[in-house]
Structures are given as C-alpha cells and as structure tokens.
Amino acid sequence: MVKILVFQTIDMSSNLITHFLMSLLNLIKHPRKNKIKKQKSVKLNKNPQKKGICIKVLTKSPKKPNSANRRIAKVRIVETKQILTLKIQGEQQNLQQHSTLLIQGGRSRDLIGVKYKSVRNKYDLTGVNNRKTSRSRYGVKK
C-alpha cells in the first residue's frame, strides 16, 4: 500500500489538488515505460559488418538539391541471403557481379532507400588511389 502526502497549498483551488492527486494515482497504477530504440540497420542483425556478394552494380541520381551519378550496388548477404542496396564510397571502383565485399551500416542522405555502405580495401573492393585526406574511410595505407 502506498501513502500519498499532500502538503498545504496557499491560494490554490481544490480542483488543482484533486488533479495533482489523480495524476499521481495514475502514475502509481501505470508507471511510465521506457521508449524502445529502433535499430537503423535492421538487416545486419546487430553486427557491425557483414560479408556480401555483389549481384549488380549501377548508378543512381540523388535527391533534389544535389546532382550526380552515385555508384550503388545490389548485394546479397552471405548468411541470411537478404538483398540490400549499398553505396560504394569514393572514386573509381572495381566491383563486378559475384565479387565479395564487406557491408557496414550508415545511410546516404541524398540517396533514397540506401541505408548501408561498403568498406573499401576489403575482399575484392580496392581502396581509392592517390587519397591524401580521410584515408581510413577509403582504405588507403600511408
């Protein structure tokens, strides 16, 4: 049994006190629930990276203010056989059908429906040539 203490209120109407008591009673009966966090990269099954096999390499144009041809690939995850689209980062890529690559989460804001990225310089996907800045992102040794 829970006891509720109500302190004396000065210049407050009785309506406010009853409202306060009702909300306290409601909270005791039905306590607040924590929000459930949604996972953004669902197909990786809580793994940081997964291995995939390339099905098709194609280009896609981005959303409204930007204009270019972004390289994307349709990839089948090895374990689960799920198909997803991912962005190939950086310039020049050597991906073909049936080549293996490493998939990581991280959406591309200007491409609709692309929630995954490829990891450069792993398996068949080579690193970017003559890269000086942000080398770790594009798989370039010093």
Number of helical stretches of at least 4 residues: 2
Helix content: 10-25%
Mean pLDDT: 87
Query: If strands are numbered along the chain, what order do they take across the biggest sheet?
Result: 1-2-3-5-4
CATH first level of the domain at 42-138: Mainly Beta
Structural class given helices, strands, pairing? alpha+beta
Task: State the CATH superfamily name of the domain at 42-138.
Answer: Nucleic acid-binding proteins
Largest sheet: 5 strands, mixed, barrel
Globular, elongated, flat, extended or rod-shaped: what is the shape?
Answer: elongated
Task: State the oligomer.
Answer: single chain
| CATH structural architecture of the domain at 42-138 | Beta Barrel
The sequence of SSEs as H and E is: HEEEEEH
CATH level 3 topology of the domain at 42-138: OB fold (Dihydrolipoamide Acetyltransferase, E2P)
How far do the termini sit from each other? 68 Å
Strand residues, percent: 15-25%
Low-confidence stretches: none
Radius of gyration over C-alpha positions, nearest whole angstrom: 26 Å
**Number of beta-strand segments:** 5
TL;DR of this structure?
The protein has 142 residues and is α+β, with helices and mostly antiparallel strands.
Question: What features would you describe in this structure?
Answer:
The protein is α+β, with helices and mostly antiparallel strands. The protein has a domain at 42-138: OB fold (Dihydrolipoamide Acetyltransferase, E2P), CATH 2.40.50.140. It is built from two helices and five strands; from the N terminus they run H-E-E-E-E-E-H. The chain has helices at residues 14-29, 135-138, and strands at residues 49-60, 70-77, 83-87, 100-105, 116-119. The mean pLDDT is 87.
